[in-house]
Design a protein that fits this description.
InterPro entries: DNA_Rcmb_RecR, Rcmb_RecR, Rcmb_RecR_Znf, TOPRIM_dom, TOPRIM_RecR
Number of domains: 2
Protein name: Recombination protein RecR
Number of helices: 8
Strand order of the largest sheet: 4-3-5-6
Largest sheet: 4 strands, parallel
Number of strands: 6
Shape: globular
Structural class: alpha/beta
Keywords: DNA damage, DNA recombination, DNA repair, Metal-binding, Zinc, Zinc-finger
GO biological process, one term: DNA recombination
CATH class of the largest domain: Alpha Beta
Bound molecules: zinc ion
Pfam family, one: RecR_HhH
Distance between the termini: 64 Å
Length: 197
């Protein structure tokens, strides 16, 4: 029952993260047998997204236009700039609803071992932006990994002459986390970053 066109579809579906041969086959069969119109909509949505979604020229997050909705929103604060590694991080912070400033997406983190240096990220552009605008606080929201920390330290050194306040996201116990299951490095950070209640 496997035709060349079916096999091609199964192969293409495997480009998605976490989708192997079996899941791809299940998806293809599901679309073909029960959801053909939706499958056509899916194909059209994929084509539109792949062709039309680009990088925001101001923050490097994803955008349908030259400037993304967050950069274009006049109700957001220009005085706080949150630096993240990827557009996925922007989405995560936006979903928290805790931040109303602007973002800047680096496009990754420093990782000399993988050949990713400052020139490969948008760090020069970030520093130029800090020089030319009145930003009160730079929030470094890179990952809590060795590379994320290294990237944050590198940027804080370069940014210090141009911005008064540079902060880093707090690290510690996750919500709902029991202390006995938290690793000692996280617990160490949580104790160092403890706050008044
Ligand atoms: Zn933007």
């Amino acid at each position: 029952m496997l035709t060349p066109k079916f096999e091609h579809l199964v192969k293409q579906l495997q480009v998605l993260p976490g989708v192997g041969q079996k899941s791809a086959q299940r998806m293809a069969l599901h679309l073909l047998s029960k959801k053909r119109p939706q499958g056509v909509s899916l194909a059209q949505a994929l084509e539109t997204a792949m062709c039309d979604i680009k990088e925001c020229s101001r923050c490097h997050s994803f955008s349908d236009d030259d400037i993304c909705p967050i950069c274009a929103d006049v109700r957001r604060s220009d005085s706080e700039l949150c630096v993240v590694e990827s557009a996925a991080d922007v989405m995560a912070i936006e979903q928290s609803g805790a931040f109303r400033g602007r973002y800047f997406v680096l496009g990754g983190h420093l990782s000399p071992i993988d050949g990713i240096n400052a020139d490969d990220l948008h760090i020069d552009e970030l520093i130029i932006r800090l020089k030319n605008s009145a930003i009160d606080e730079l929030i470094l929201a890179t990952g809590a990994t060795v590379e994320g920390q290294t990237t944050a330290f590198f940027i804080s050194d370069a940014a210090r002459p141009f911005v008064g306040k540079i902060t880093r996201l707090a690290q510690g116990i996750p919500m709902g986390g029991e202390l006995e299951f938290v690793d000692s490095l996280t617990l160490h950070q949580a104790l160092q970053n403890r706050a008044f209640i």
